[in-house]
Amino acid sequence: MDASWQPVQGSNPAAGVHPNDAAAAGGHWAAQHDPEWRSRIVSRIVEILKKHLPASVLDLDGLNHLQGVAERFEDKMYTAATSQSDYLRKISLKLLSMETKRQQALLK
C-alpha cells in the first residue's frame, strides 16, 4: 500500500461510503445540484401559479409577490424533502392538489 495515500476527507471506505455521495456522507441530498437547478424549479412553479390567477393581478407588484410565494413554497419543499424524487413528488402533489381544487370550484 502506498504510504502517501489517504482517503478523501469525509469519506469512509470501511463503511462503503462513496466520497461523492453527499447524502450518504451526511450532507444534504441536493448538494450535488448546481444553484440554477432550484431557480429553474421556482420559475416553473411561477409559470404554473400564473395560470391560476386573473391577469388583472399579474402586474409588476403581483408578479414580484408571486415570485416570493413560489420561492417560499419551493424552499419549504426543499427543506422537507429527503431526496430529489421526494422533493419533486412533494411539489407535484401540492400543485396537482391546487389544480384539482380550482377545477372543483369551477364546477360549483
From TrEMBL:
Spans annotated as Disordered: 1-33
Top-level taxon: Eukaryota
Alphabetically ordered keywords of this record: Nucleus
Localization per record: Nucleus
Single Gene Ontology MF annotation: transcription coactivator activity
Gene Ontology cellular-component annotations: nucleus
Pfam families: KIX_2 (PF16987)
All copies of domain Mediator complex subunit 15 KIX, residue ranges: 27-105
Compositionally biased residues, Polar residues: 1-12
Protein name: Mediator complex subunit 15 KIX domain-containing protein
Source organism: Lolium multiflorum
